[in-house]
Amino acid sequence: MNGVLIIDKPSGLTSHDVVNRLRRILGERSVGHLGTLDPLATGVLPLLIGNLTRLAQFYTNSEKSYQGVIRFGFATETYDAQGEPTSPSQAVELSEERVREIAAQFQGKIRQMPPPFSAKKIQGVPAYKLARKRQDVPLTPVEVEIREFEIVRTTGDRAEFHARVASGTYMRSVAHDMGKILGCGAHLESLRRTAVGEFGLANAHTLEAVADVVANGQTEAIMVHPRELLPEFPAVTANEAMAAMIRYGRPVNLPEMSSARRVKVFVGQRELIAIATRLAGTLFHPAIVLAPSPAHQAANRA
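Above: the chain sequence. Below: its structure as tokens.
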């Protein structure tokens, strides 16, 4: 089974938990996700299935959109609502104008310290493993980009926000740092991811809904249509002769794609068989072959 499925991740599950559940539902071992979501967070979690897991390399820098709530008054060790408080709780009545002034400091390219409870690697070890053992977590600031950060409203000690960020940005760190600036501490109370690249909540399904659809034999109906993947790459439909060459990893001429650097190659409307890269002129090399050759298929069956 090959495809892309968008899950609306519930709170309380890790991204890996979702992958494991989908493996069992689909009976497919080859499943991977695009961009980890914290257990607390909900929302868009794109999953690549079968041969399409090889497309993950094109999504490493995908923009992500979020909506969430920052609670002011105390900080936590995880920078979110699941962690133990690290500062005394204090009553806060926010000034919406002041919160928006502070939020403006986090727009654009900034230096950000990742949370100690994160997947950032320290000499090959995820930071959260060291933090759980109360060991030193020697993280260093990294450059991230926050393309949009809007405070929607403030109510009491909470601020609702919307954000669009480049890959690698931690909204938990934004909440924590805003609390430091205000001098009252803060943490991320809730977070919902609304988009990853071209995938949004309109494409997303709960795990329960997926299980029902799969049980009814209608799995393809909830998969993202292959032609909607990687919209920045033009699509071309190969004839039988082209498809045969591509499946064996051989270059092909695609005259109608002479100006494109990379293209998606299809057989029919739904079967994505390759991502091809232009060598010169109209000659394209299948850099990633997603459909094995007949000889390879026969060898696997033997």
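Residues 228-301 form a domain with the Archaeosine Trna-guanine Transglycosylase; Chain: A, domain 4 fold (CATH 2.30.130.10).
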